[in-house]
Structure to design on (769 residues):
């Protein structure tokens, strides 16, 4: 009975959906759909990058001082963690294409763990900001900035929290998707012929990674040219 | 049911019954009808707000509603009409139903996502409805900061979240259309054989996909600003309220083309069918849609001519805005040229198409007035602007939407609407529309500001004319409501191709079977090839 349901679920996910004529058409459509979705994500983050550009241009020096309060080591460590997670993700995709069912699960779990590490470090960083009164609001205070410019410094941290917050939200969604993939992969659903979900969620994961590659220098490294 | 089911041909409407078969359907045709139902509700809701606005404006003093209520009325009119009616109207109903059929596909590429996008519109709509019932929102549909973030005491967040959610509905529809047009075309349906309705919906989808996410992030920032006071739009912290206007119009100007491009697609179909000629300059009309989609992203600054934008930026935006006139004019000229030596019939959809061409031309030309820096400063925030965009959105989009609904009604429902009543309604709408909105051009030019309900006595005659026109217009919109519903039971049965039209959607039964075609069509002709259908019967009332 249980195994019947299992077999049925298996066939369902492999089946060609009725609106398509061929499996290739189905895969092409899904891939194109994912790329277009990622374009919408670029535009979505684009609004924040625009706001960042405007205010960094207006308040360049305050932004540099505010940025220097960031812990660049956490940021760099997280960058390495995310890059590694992209590597394990791409290895999972390759394992799926080769039909190595156990390897898919292994690499997906590794990716999920690395994603978790990133979020853990991020949470730790946010906690520090909270302790240091770097959260925008009535208690906000940043040392090394005149009282008239506290507002401008606050803008930097508003953008920091908005951008890293939305990025983290995308990571959480990505982790949920990875969890789904792991459960599916454990059933042995993905084969050399059918692995579109691994491929597409892989694309999404890389995209979220790339967003961080832009966030890291913009938020952590902008004061590096200043003499200390 | 059992006795008739034996005789009745199976089609998408009688394939299954019950509320679940609708709420869980993945059939693009049924989802289109769900959308039709939803946007019609919002249309009449927005219309009710408009009615109250026009009643208030009958007299120069504020004696029907209070100042605060008036602010809420025009805000909720705009929110309901723009985000919950006009934007989904043509793409999500007519596009959803006919885009797959026109390219010979069984469905959209992602039927489940299509259903999800309808639910998103409903959820967003419920947010907005809640805000309206709980006390309304008074910021104007534009939500300008800092009023919306700091000072307004109305339901800004609920409304904005509703728009946010509905935005994802729009994004998913656009995504679905793009993939469908790329990957689901029937054999032989090349890009240069696509009906122009498909081209224009494709161009619309590009805007939906590229523009709407920017609105989404803008609403998130608005939310953070209002709830957490993060300072992004707050001058007290060094934030810039005008940044909101830039972000807002980066979406909301292209959104005008989300509303009007699909309408242009409908008109291309109607003009061709009812002149029995291929559309003149097919490729120009198709590429004009793409050009409008691209140019639409480069002109948002013309909404900020008086909002701290530099003179040089103003000049560039003014200059670029003129460019939109080129592809728009190409379309109008080509529709007109299509009529030349055509065998024209004055069926109801064609009457609406004629209405569209005339009214869109007026709306477009006054758009050029507004693109001119000097003149725009004179009429900024006056009824001239109100009249201009109502000529585009009501005179343009709603005319085309009504024309399209009449044209495709037999295919969607299997029934003909009563032609005599329909012609009368087209006439009433046209007259009512002009009586409502033409006086507003004069009012605006004379200096009547928008969003005020108290005005000098000398404006009253024109306001009374406008309100009278709105009453006529309301009758014009209620009539189809009645006879469309009537026709579902009493209308004559529609044949597969009552208009003798050439598109693939007419090469299957009315209403279509579940998968649209009994077998996948193979396309061997160009679009609008009226040589091959010339022999068929045309039934026009």
């Amino acid at each position: 009975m249980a195994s019947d349901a299992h077999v049925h679920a298996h066939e369902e996910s492999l089946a060609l959906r009725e609106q398509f004529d061929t499996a290739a058409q189905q895969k092409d459509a899904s891939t194109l759909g994912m790329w277009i979705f990622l374009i919408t994500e670029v535009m979505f983050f684009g609004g924040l990058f625009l706001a960042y550009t405007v205010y960094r241009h207006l308040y360049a020096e305050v932004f540099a001082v505010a940025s220097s309060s960031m812990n660049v080591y956490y940021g760099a460590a997280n960058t390495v963690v995310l890059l590694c997670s992209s590597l394990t993700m791409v290895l999972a995709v390759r394992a799926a294409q080769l039909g190595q069912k156990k390897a898919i699960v292994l690499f997906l779990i590794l990716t999920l763990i690395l994603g978790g590490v990133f979020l853990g470090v991020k949470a730790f960083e946010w906690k520090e900001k909270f302790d240091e009164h770097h959260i925008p609001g009535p208690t906000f205070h940043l040392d090394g900035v005149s009282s008239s410019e506290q507002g401008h410094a606050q803008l930097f941290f508003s953008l920091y929290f908005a951008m890293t917050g939305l990025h983290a939200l995308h990571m959480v969604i990505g982790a949920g998707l990875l969890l789904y993939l792991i459960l599916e992969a454990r059933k042995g659903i993905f084969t050399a012929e059918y692995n579109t979900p691994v491929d597409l969620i892989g694309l999404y994961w890389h995209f979220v990674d790339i967003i961080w590659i832009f966030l890291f220098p913009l938020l952590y490294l902008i004061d590096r040219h200043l003499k200390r | 049911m059992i006795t008739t089911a034996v005789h009745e041909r199976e089609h998408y409407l009688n394939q299954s019954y019950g509320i679940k078969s609708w709420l869980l359907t993945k059939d693009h045709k049924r989802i289109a009808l769900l959308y039709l139902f939803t946007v019609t509700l919002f249309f009449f809701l927005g219309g009710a707000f408009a009615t109250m606005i026009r009643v208030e404006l009958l007299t120069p003093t504020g004696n029907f509603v209070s100042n605060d209520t008036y602010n809420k009325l025009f805000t909720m009119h705009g929110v309901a009409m723009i985000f919950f009616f006009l934007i989904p109207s043509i793409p999500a109903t007519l596009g959803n139903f006919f885009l797959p059929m026109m390219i010979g596909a069984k469905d959209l590429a992602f039927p489940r996502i299509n259903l999800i996008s309808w639910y998103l519109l409903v959820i967003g709509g419920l947010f907005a409805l809640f805000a309206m019932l709980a006390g309304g929102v008074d910021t104007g549909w534009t939500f300008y900061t800092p009023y919306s973030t700091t000072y307004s005491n109305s339901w800004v967040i609920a409304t904005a979240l509703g728009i946010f959610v509905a935005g994802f509905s729009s994004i998913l529809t656009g995504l679905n259309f793009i993939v469908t047009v790329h990957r689901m075309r029937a054999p032989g349906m090349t890009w240069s054989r696509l009906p122009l309705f498909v081209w224009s919906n494709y161009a619309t989808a590009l805007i939906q996909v590229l523009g709407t996410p920017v609105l989404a992030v803008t609403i998130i920032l608005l939310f953070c600003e209002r709830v957490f006071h993060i300072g992004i739009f707050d001058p007290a912290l060094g934030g810039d309220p005008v940044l909101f206007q830039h972000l807002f119009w980066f979406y909301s100007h292209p959104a005008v083309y989300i509303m009007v491009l699909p309408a242009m697609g409908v008109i291309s179909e109607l003009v061709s069918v009812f002149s029995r000629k291929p559309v003149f300059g097919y490729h120009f009309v198709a590429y004009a849609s793409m050009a409008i989609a691209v140019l639409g992203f480069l002109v948002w600054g013309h909404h900020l001519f008086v909002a701290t934008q530099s003179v040089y930026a103003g000049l560039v935006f003014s200059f670029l805005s003129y460019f939109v006139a080129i592809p728009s004019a190409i379309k109008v000229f080509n529709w007109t040229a299509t009529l030349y030596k055509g065998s024209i019939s004055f069926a109801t959809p064609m009457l609406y198409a004629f209405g569209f061409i005339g009214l869109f031309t007026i709306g477009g030309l006054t758009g050029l007035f507004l693109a001119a820096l000097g003149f725009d400063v004179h009429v900024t925030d006056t009824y001239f602007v109100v009249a201009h965009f109502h000529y585009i959105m009501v005179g343009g989009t709603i005319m085309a939407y009504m024309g399209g609904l009449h044209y495709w009604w037999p295919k969607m429902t299997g029934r003909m609407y009563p032609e005599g009543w329909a012609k009368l309604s087209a006439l009433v709408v046209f007259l009512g529309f002009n009586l409502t909105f033409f006086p507003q051009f004069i009012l605006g030019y004379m200096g009547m500001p928008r969003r005020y309900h108290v005005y000098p006595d000398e404006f009253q005659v024109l306001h009374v004319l406008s309100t009278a026109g709105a009453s006529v217009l309301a009758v014009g919109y209620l009539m189809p409501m009645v006879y469309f519903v009537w026709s579902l039971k009493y209308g004559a049965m529609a044949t597969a191709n009552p208009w003798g039209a050439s598109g693939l959607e007419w090469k299957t039964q009315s209403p279509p079977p579940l998968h649209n075609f009994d077998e996948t069509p193979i396309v061997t002709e160009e679009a609008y090839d009226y040589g091959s259908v010339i022999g068929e019967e045309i039934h026009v009332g």
